[in-house]
Amino acid sequence: MVRTLRRLIDRIVLRDRQYRFLFRDEEGDEAISLDCETTGFDSWVDEIVSIAAIPIRGSRILTSQAYCALVRPEGAMKARSIRVHQLREKDVERGRTMQDVLPELLHFIGSRPLVGYWIDFDVRMLDKYLIEMLNIHLPNRRFDVSKLYYDRKYGNAPAGTRVDLSLASIQHDLRLPMRQQHDAFNDALSAAEMYVILKDMTARGARIRRERDQQGIAFSVG
User: Fold this and answer.
1) What is the per-residue DSSP string for 190-207?
2) Quick check: 61 and 194 in contact, CB under 8 A?
């Protein structure tokens, strides 16, 4: 309800009418898997340093059509974030400004739903720039793969069940390859793979069995 109201308000206060396409109705069975790497973990003060967006069409992940951008932040890089994503000051110096990247990204995404692992953080980071540029929040529908995974594995779990929503746990249960994390393209690709599998399981009513349900078998398709 809150998101619907915000979307209605943003449609009215949109600063540049050429971006009305962001509010179009969704068409077809397409989504965009999105990941951002940042200078830190505070969406109010930190900045984006790299972005990857990968189209998903039905059950196909279109890596050859991915959008990737290195972004040059206005502020200094933080040591703890460099340890996470391995992007140094000299790496991001060759990037473009977010003012150059954001219009391209918006046209690439369009009104398609967004997919990601803890996607709300990525959207909050983008919203900071979007509010400054267009006076709106990103209106796209979102699918958080950690929530889809929770529903498939823990949705019918009894009270007190230990819940593990780590990326490693999801990859293990879905039998997906472990990639170098905190690389925007790798993380977007992993989220896309999770989304395709979990969406199919949801459609079929299949569940991920918890270990205590079936003697050490962590993944089972119903």
Assistant:
1) HHHHHHHHHHHHHHHT--
2) no
Residue 213 pLDDT class (50, 70, 90 cuts): very low
Percent of the chain with pLDDT over 90: 69
Nearest to 190 by CA among 169, 164, 171: 171
CA distance 24 to 113: 11
Count other Cβ atoms within 10 Å, centred on residue 84: 14
Residue ranges covered by each domain of the chain: 2-213
Q: How confident is the model at residue 218 (pLDDT cuts 50, 70, 90)?
A: very low
47-63 pLDDT tens trace: 999 999 999 999 999 99
Residue 30: strand, helix, or coil: strand
Out of 2.130.10.10, 3.20.20.70, 1.10.600.10, 3.30.420.10, the CATH code matching 2-213 is 3.30.420.10
Q: How many CB atoms lie within 10 A of CB 98?
A: 23
Backbone dihedral angles phi then psi of residue 61, each to the nearest 5 degrees: -100, 115
* Tokens representing residue 197 in the block: 């599998």
Note whether 191 and 176 are within 8 A (CB).
Answer: no
